[in-house]
Design brief:
With 412 residues, this protein is α/β, with parallel strands linked by helices. Helix 9 packs across helix 15. The longest helix is centred in the N-terminal third of the chain and has 17 residues.
């Protein structure tokens, strides 16, 4: 099995555009949650939840021509922006013909082109449109981001799109890691992208009663592991990482940011919305086994940490099951407190945070933490980033349907 390293990263999310700005905002504990601006005011006025973690000041025309935008939903745009950043850092802006054949794409999503779907369904059902633009299907399909990234950067290797709800990006990265390990590719552009801040999606989440209310403080709405947590804040964005065969990276003098050490995936097979303790715990153990590590080797956990009452308590129990007494000594943080729950992209965005924690020796905080919860009694790095050596980090994603995925990254 070949070793797999990360040689480039790109991210666009509510806290920042680009890895440096993004991680700087996380370290500062700066939340990207704010009143929704990207929907018409009359639409926002009909919502009960009027906050989200939107990408601030995003202008598509700074990145794409009007002709290109005809076939790009917002989630595909984000993936292309993040992929270009990652390729630039990796020194792969222009792939040679040989590199093209050995480069694949694996970008997960939970919602695909939901903005386009919402817009055109409104035209059909509310405005009685009889015809739609011819490129609606290429915009809305779940594999649109994968296809667009593949075509834009001429990646002609294996390309696929995992869609496993909130674990999509972590599964995408894990499967890309396997492909390089097994020699199917030398480079993979892997991660996730989602743009679910639409009227229809928010209405659906409102019906589940798991969205955090604004209560006049949008920036503090998402409070993972805090005793007064009230639910998730929906976010949008993308993160794409360049995964590369270690020896190939060494030969070409690529910047090696971290090594992908282990991957574990499984299913609870128990409940469509409520996670179990056993499933997430086993996924973490599978990742540790794959990495050849004991639980004592983990220096930081970037938690799934959605800020719902049930999920945070169950995740805490799962961490205790895996790490035992040491669980209380490991820094655990949820960066969703700042970038929101970006659904199928969350795992990739959180892995960027984990890699930067290793590179910079700074653990980002769980922002907005205010009140201890007896059921959540670990070290959640409340509110203030912590300077500490991080050699290895574990990043978890636990999705509806009980689909769990865990990655471990380490310093090379």
């Amino acid at each position: 099995m070949r070793r797999v390293v990360i040689t480039g990263m790109g991210v666009i999310a509510a806290p920042g555009n680009g890895v440096a700005d993004f991680f700087r905002a996380l370290v500062a504990g700066r939340s990207g949650s704010r009143p929704i601006r990207n929907l018409p005011p009359e639409v926002v006025g009909r919502l009960n939840c009027r906050i989200a973690a939107e990408v601030a000041d995003y202008d598509p025309l700074k990145h794409f021509t009007e002709k290109e935008l005809d076939q790009l939903d917002r989630f595909s745009q984000f993936a292309l922006v993040a992929a270009r950043q990652a390729l630039t850092q990796a020194g792969l802006e222009a792939l040679s013909e040989a590199q093209q054949l050995r480069t694949g794409v694996c970008i997960g999503t939970a919602y695909g082109g939901m903005e386009s779907l919402d817009t055109h369904y409104f035209a059909l059902y509310a405005k009685n449109a009889t015809r739609l633009p011819p490129l609606v299907i290429p915009r809305v399909m779940y594999n649109a981001a994968t296809c667009q990234v593949s075509m834009r950067f001429l990646a002609r290797g294996p390309c696929l799109t995992p869609t496993t709800a909130c674990s999509s990006a972590t599964h995408a990265l894990g499967e890309a890691y396997r492909m390089i390990q097994q020699g199917q590719a030398d480079w993979m552009l892997a991660g996730g992208s989602d743009a679910p801040i639409t009227y229809g999606v928010i209405r659906c989440w409102e019906a589940m009663r798991v969205l955090a209310p604004e209560n006049g403080q949008a920036a503090r709405a998402c409070r993972p592991f805090s005793g007064d947590r009230q639910g998730i804040v929906i976010g949008e964005g993308s993160a794409v990482l360049v995964l590369e065969d270690y020896e190939t990276a060494q030969r070409r003098g690529a910047p090696i940011l971290a090594e992908v050490a282990g991957y574990g995936a499984n299913s609870d097979a128990s409940h469509i919305t409520q996670p179990s303790v056993a499933g997430p715990a086993r996924a973490m153990r599978l990742a540790l086994e794959d990495a050849g590590m004991s639980p004592d080797a983990i220096d930081y956990v970037n938690a799934h940490g959605t800020a719902t009452k049930v999920n945070d308590a169950i995740e805490t129990r799962a961490l205790k099951e895996v790490f035992g007494e040491r669980a209380k000594k490991i820094p655990v943080s949820s960066t969703k407190s700042m970038h929101g729950h970006v659904m199928g992209a969350s795992g990739a965005i959180e892995l960027v945070a984990a890699v930067e924690a290793i590179r910079q020796g700074i653990v980002p905080p769980t922002a907005n933490y205010s009140t201890p919860d007896p059921e959540c009694d670990l070290d959640y790095v409340p509110n203030q980033a912590r300077q500490t050596p991080v050699r290895t980090a574990l990043s978890s994603s636990f999705a509806f349907g009980g689909l769990n995925a865990v990655l471990i990254v380490k310093r090379v």
